[in-house]
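If you are new to this repository, start here. Below is one unmodified record pulled from the training split, so you can see the exact layout before writing a loader.
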Amino acid sequence: MFMRLSTLRHAGSALGFRALLGLLTIGIGLLAVPTRNALASTTITGTVGPSGKYLVTGAPVTTTAVTVLKISFENKTSGTNLELCAGTAADFAAGTCSVRLSDSGGPGFVFLTITDTAQLSGKIIFVQRAVGIAPATFALTVE
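And here is the target side for that same chain:
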């Protein structure tokens, strides 16, 4: 009987050691994963058509967190310039850019905007054409 108890005690410690070794291996594996991939981002692509406007957010931005938002904006159509705007629904309807978050150059130029989320609270985000008449494609990435 004493022999069995001793065997069980050693079997338990071997099992605990294997579990610890497994957790250690997983932990080291997680450290090896680049943290850059852990950042969340959303990319929106769209085309500003004949109306000259493209609504990005379907509702006003609501935020209570005080944080910084990184926005990359790119116009992909030559011969046009676009504006990334924030404003009210009335601003969107009238084509008024009350808060200009970014302008665009030609294709290949990506502009970075770093803004406080409090500046966007209560506003909708939209893109409008500033120059040109052709449909203009854009890419917008938010982190």
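Two things worth knowing about this chain: The chain has two domains: 2-35, 39-142. The helical segments are 2-32, 89-94, 117-120.
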